[in-house]
What we know:
Blueprint: H1 2-23, H2 28-31, H3 33-36, E1 42-49, H4 52-78, H5 85-96, H6 99-102, E2 106-107, E3 111-113, E4 116-124, H7 125-152, H8 156-183, H9 187-190, H10 192-199, H11 201-210, E5 213-217, H12 225-236, E6 240-241, E7 247-254, E8 263-265, E9 268-274, E10 280-287, E11 292-294, H13 297-315
Parallel strand pairs: 5-6, 5-7
Antiparallel strand pairs: 1-4, 2-4, 3-4, 7-9, 8-11, 9-10
Helix pairs in contact: 4-5, 4-8, 7-8, 8-11, 12-13
Amino acid sequence: MKKNAVLMSCxxxxxxCLPAAAKGRAPAWVTDWKSAFPDSAYIAQRGTxxxxxxxxxxxxxxxxxxxxxxxxxxxxxxxxxxxxxxxxETQEDVLITSQAxxxxxxxxxxxxxxxxxxxxxxIDRAKAWAQILPGIRAKExxxxxxxxxxxxxxxxxxxxxxxxxxxxxxxDFFAALAYGRLIYPGADAVxxxxxxxxxxxxxxxxxxxAGVSVRIVCPEDADGIIRNAVARKFEEAxxxxxxxxxxxxxxxxxxxxxxxxxxxxxxxxxxxxRGRTGAAVHSFQCRAEEKTxxxxxxxAKRRALPKLAEAVGAQFLQGYEGIRP
Length: 325
């Protein structure tokens, strides 16, 4: 009887000690957080600190640093075909700012381990992918809309402008897809068709521009100063210039004269591009940087036109210069 009583006392003592032992056992993520949060299912980083709050802050900062380093690599790859380093940096700065919050970062309960607080911040890949997928779809839709316009337009010069818009919007699509790939490695496969179409834009644009020739019409420019400047800009943008071009670039010069003795002029130029049907498809404007004064209008015009030609070189066809593949 006495032996049984001793055994019962030992049993109850062991039971009473179990919670205390369990309480002192560190969770698995404290000693091996990478196994607890495998990379295939999570983006996770562990933080430490003197307080529980500092550990949380350190953990989410570590996630942000990880995302930023990965984003730099993926965006550099995605934008390599466009050569737009400045645009890459801009996208990164805008999108990385609140990236951790955007993906719905979660936390383990901070745990005091060997006098240091520990915490793991983690992003569930499946949840995050479901969250960002609509945004990628939206960027894809914008790109596809420009592609449809470009391929449906029967005016070749205007179609080139649509391809330019398609290429610009493709960069936003590439950026969104780069973030998607960071979260879900299979993102490229989901958007394979649209990505392929986006990467084909430079070659499609080159083929489109090969079919565009422009004739310059500038009757007010007897010496050909403005005509030559305009022709150079079209050629720099990748268009052929020909006397029998399918598109006409009609250049109109305005002297904008002021005063009479002397007279001051600050000429401006408007170029209207007409397509195969004769309808206006685009127009461009530029203006001389400064006034030119003389005692006769003809002299003022002769002196001012070279300055207008300089403005053509600096201002004309802005945006179209960037549509070369």
